[in-house]
Amino acid sequence: MVLELRSGSKINNNHSEQQNQAVISENNNSSNSPSKKSCQNEDGQGMTLVVFFGLLIDLLAFTLILPLFPALLDHYKKHDSSDGLYHFLDSRVKSFGIWIGADEQFNSVLFGGLLGSLFSFLQFVASPLIGGLSDHFGRRPLLLLSTAGVALSYAIWVNASTFGLFVLARIVGGLSKGNVSLATAIIADISSHKTRGRGMAFIGIAFSIGFLIGPLVGAGFAVWAKGHDKSSNKEWYIYPAMVALSLSVIDFIYIFMKFKETLAPEKRLKSLDAALKQTLTYVNPISLFQFQSLDNLKEDELASLKTIGRTYFLYLFLYSGLEFTLTFLTHLRFNFTSMDQGKMFLFIGVLMACVQGGYVRKIPPGKEKVMVLRGLLLIVPSFAIVGFAQNIPTLYLGLALYALSTSVVVPCMTTLVSHYGTVSQKGIVMGVYRSLGALGRAMGPVVASVLYWMVGPEICYSMGGLGLIIPYLMLKSCKTC
User: Fold this and answer.
1) What is d(CA 22, CA 444) in angstroms, rounded to the nearest whole number?
2) Which of the four, 16, 196, 280, 309, has the lowest number of CB atoms within 10 Å?
């Protein structure tokens, strides 16, 4: 926990120097006057705020569904047709559970984990492609396309009278969810080495506020809808789905009107074929972990990038298991309603917002690795506490440690990885980094759900907590990160 980043997180290589020289050259070409430089700084800050608010609106819509998953599965279990997709899949889950002797009460956990992994697997496929295309075409068109796809997924959810349509909505949403990787690439475009950490913290704050408000709003509309006029032909889930759709449309209009391109034409990848070849290699996990498109980096820098990427993958692989099964644990053990789930996410979001808004954004350059290591250790006991919790105070103690850790680890690791690559490679670097996270999220829920299903939450969460020691040791042993 006491390792320091050398020389304030500076990377001793030609690409870092080239990026700095590109920024200096651009400023000199515009004007050498302090007033002109001040205007450019203000433009960068303005775009940071545009990205922040655009991402915040998107995350408010995205997080509406989080406390509703157990209730949604219960709804489709009761209302999907006997020959529909839900009962087809559920019969297979039950058959497999009988074969291995798993507890039938945990079937919904396994089923939810499969659904959660599907969404993240599609993100894993789409994220590097969207990032690579943005390196060629620019950030703005891909950001608008991604936002439009997300809006379409919510439109399908509004009309999801069958489980098959709900799954289709999740598929479209997963394939379109590239705006987070684009947001990080945009921050890298418009920030300097010294200001990049602050820009990444804004992304973390957007996540915190999204998780602070979104789940509670979704739960509130679900509770209101269930208590609404019983004669209405509308299902309860339509109301939170319509709110998500409305927010997504607002987000598209906001980005269209306010966002200006941050990747100048002269800094883009010139060949579309090159961009596609780069991105397609990242669908192959082996190529992904090797960062093969960045073979022009120096050996020590590439090794550092690989270590950070693998650490991030393992962290999200284990973390996402707790994250996704949490609502099912509280639903089964404590009989949490959708509103109880919303209040739980509110508690987590308040802590994350306070830490990221008041502390993380002030972390000086060069301290990110130390903070990541501390955060990784902090989350280890939180897993065991949540898994063994038999009362609400104990549960919330574990959730507090979980929130404090997450609020530090994710933005600081993102800042670390954003230092790598030239200006024209930022989209690829961040796309691959986010894809590693998406791959972890794709595998984590289903693996954790299977383990939860087979041995129960106590052993499942304890193993997850102990497993987080591995990424801690990996990052700590990296002397050049």
Assistant:
1) 40
2) 280
Mean pLDDT, residues 288-303 taken together: 76
Q: Which of 369, 470, 446 is nearest to 413 (CA)?
A: 369
Q: What's 253's domain CATH number?
A: 1.20.1250.20
Pure H helices in 259-391:
272-280, 285-290, 299-333, 338-358, 368-388
Is the model more confident about 23 or about 454?
454
| pLDDT of 300 higher than 80 | no
Residues contacting residue 236 through CB under 8 Å, at least 6 positions apart: 75, 222, 225, 226, 228
The CA distance from 185 to 143, in Å, is 11
pTM over 0.90: no
CA-CA distance, 365 to 193, in Å (whole number)? 8
Nearest to 352 by CA among 1, 49, 59, 3: 59
Does residue 2 lie within any of the structural domains? no
Q: Is residue 26 part of a domain?
A: no
Task: Give CA–CA dist 390/373, Å, rounded.
Answer: 29
Residue pLDDT, tens place only, 49-103: 888 999 999 999 998 998 888 888 888 888 888 788 888 877 777 776 666 666 6
Which of the 8 DSSP states describes residue 468? T
C-alpha 200/C-alpha 202 separation (Å) is 5
Pure H helices in 177-195: 179-190
Residue with the bigger pLDDT between 157 and 85: it is: 157
The residue among 226, 262, 229, 253 whose CA lies nearest residue 43 is: 262
Q: In Å, how far are 51, 356, 372, 452 from 409, measured between CA atoms?
A: 21, 10, 5, 25
- Is 11 inside a domain boundary? no
Q: Considering only CA atoms, which of 457, 376, 331 is closest in space to residue 66? A: 331
Residue 406 CA: distances (Å) to CA of 172, 208, 256: 27, 10, 31
Domain count, the chain: 1
Asked whether the predicted pLDDT for residue 397 surpasses 90, the reply is yes
As to burial, measured by CB atoms within 10 angstroms (0-12 exposed, 13-18 middle, 19+ buried), residue 396 is middle
Alpha carbon 8 to chain centroid distance?
26
Quote the pLDDT of residue 431: 67
- The length of the chain in residues reads 481
Contact indicator for 142, 428 with CB cutoff of 8 Å:
no
Instruction: Compute the distance between CA of residue 381 and CA of residue 314 in angstroms, rounded to an integer.
Output: 17
Question: Which amino acid, residue 456?
Answer: G
Query: Quick one: tokens of 439?
Result: 């791959």
Sign of the Cα torsion 166, 410, 23, 421 reads negative
Write out the two tokens for 429.
């670097």
Please tell me the distance from the alpha carbon of residue 314 to that of residue 283, in angstroms, as a whole number.
18
